[in-house]
Amino acid sequence: MHIFGKILGAFFGLLFGGPLGAIFGLFLGHQFDKARYRSQNPFTNGQFSSGPTQTERQEEFFKSAFAVMGHVAKAKGQVTQQEIQLASIMMDRMNLHGDQRRAAQDAFREGKEADFPLQQTLENVRFFTGGRFDLMQFFLELQVSAAFADGDLHPSERQVLHKIAQGLGFSSDQLERRLRMQEAAFRFQQSGGFTGQQSSGSSQWQQPSNRDRLADAFSVLGVNQDADVQTIKRAYRKLMNEHHPDKLMAKGLPPEMMNMAKEKSQEIQHAYDLIKKEQGFK
């Protein structure tokens, strides 16, 4: 986020011109920040001055997703064989083969480098997605899902996820909510509440009670167990709208990630169906 110019402009404007000077300085600072951002992004200059194409948006999203995934995996220190296996499982879930899989592997290795430019990569994601909330949310959820694929979230991974969330414009509270929803989703999958995704984690989970499965279903939707029917339905519709695969793809989601979007929609649907069944509403 480029705000340095705005801060300096407002400060010196206030210092030399009072409130009106601060407003004028803020305007000049804003123009400076815009020019600086454009100079740092190749797709705002030269042959790409008209903006990136849909294909370029999708390619950048795809590459950045796996690069950041590699960066998160490196957060615990040396990337182990398990982290590499989990990344391969994510690629399997996307049905990546041949050149696509090699591109994902190359990006993952790039993210593991000590000098990986995380913040610049996240700025590029915001630029290429046009700041669309649902696409950036999907990007963040993809990182959370990859980090939690083994059923355990290391403190270092959590710390990096907070940096990623901040870089995408999400608050710490919003990330923690996503983490709780993902943890519940993991248990819901393990309990058979959703069979579209099989976990490779080594953790041993006991079969939960119906009460626990229902509690996880509520958490998947992000609502409290004492929520009324209308609140539950609103949460369900909002999540389904945000994760609709066709809508996401139209906005720039790479086609390789359609399966992931479909899985998420099915997960939301299964959780909602269980709640409807247990609560007895249509």
Give an overview in words.
- The protein is mostly helical.
- It contains twelve helices and no strands.
- The protein starts with a helix and ends with a helix.
- One of its GO terms (molecular function) is protein-folding chaperone binding.
- This is Co-chaperone protein DjlA.
- Its main location: membrane.
Question: What are the main properties of this structure?
Answer:
282 residues; mainly alpha; single chain; DjlA_N; transmembrane; cell membrane; Co-chaperone protein DjlA
Explain briefly what this protein structure is.
The chain has 282 residues and is mainly α. The chain is built from twelve helices and no strands.
Please work out how many helical segments DSSP would assign: 12
Instruction: Summarize the main sheet.
Output: none
- Helix-strand category: mainly alpha
Q: What series of H and E elements makes up the topology?
A: HHHHHHHHHHHH
Please write out the topology.
Elements: H1 4-40, H2 54-74, H3 81-93, H4 98-111, H5 118-128, H6 133-147, H7 155-168, H8 172-190, H9 210-221, H10 229-242, H11 245-250, H12 258-279
Helix pairs in contact: 2-4, 2-5, 2-6, 2-7, 5-7, 6-7, 6-8, 8-9, 9-12, 10-12
